[in-house]
């Protein structure tokens, strides 16, 4: 049976606004982040998308985002947490190395890139395999969404590959995947900032 996964990044946080490295450390949503999450909820309602199951990273910023998007019960999973950036956590983003990070953070107590990517992929396969529901929401983080997307890039349509390479992943950006036989295929990218513009214009 074909299932659908809506994987999204949390709303803007205080650390995002102040350009702080934010992996396993946490910060509250800003007023804009709250608005972004509410707008995502409006998008799903207007699109008549009803979730059978929902999951969130254990980080507060992800849980708060999910609770603003939908009021259905959800499960918190450590596997959905962001990349662990080690001693860089909470420091200025100016200290980050150039992309791609690869295994830079391992030297500072952080996660290996491939281990992080493996965690992201296995976590999502696990809950999709063990859930009877057809439409699933998972709220996670920017690097998580990026590494997950990178792993399944071979299943991505060419026009979405171009979209993928345009820049970073915005707060509350939503990735729609189809899931069949333990394989994910990216079929749509919903940019929350564009949704804010569209809804405010109506």
TrEMBL record:
Q: What sections of the sequence does the record tag as coiled-coil?
A: none
Q: Where does substrate bind?
A: 9-16, 61
Q: GO molecular-function annotation terms?
A: phosphatase activity
The highest taxon in the source lineage is Bacteria
Pfam family for this entry, one:
His_Phos_1
User: What InterPro entries does this protein map onto?
Assistant: His_Pase_superF_clade-1, His_PPase_superfam, PG/BPGM_mutase_AS, PGM_Phosphatase
Q: Where is the active site?
A: 10 (tele-phosphohistidine intermediate), 82 (proton donor/acceptor)
Listed under GO cellular component are: cytoplasm
Output the PANTHER family linked to this UniProt entry: BROAD-SPECIFICITY PHOSPHATASE YOR283W-RELATED, HISTIDINE PHOSPHATASE FAMILY PROTEIN
UniProt-recorded name of the protein: Phosphoglycerate mutase
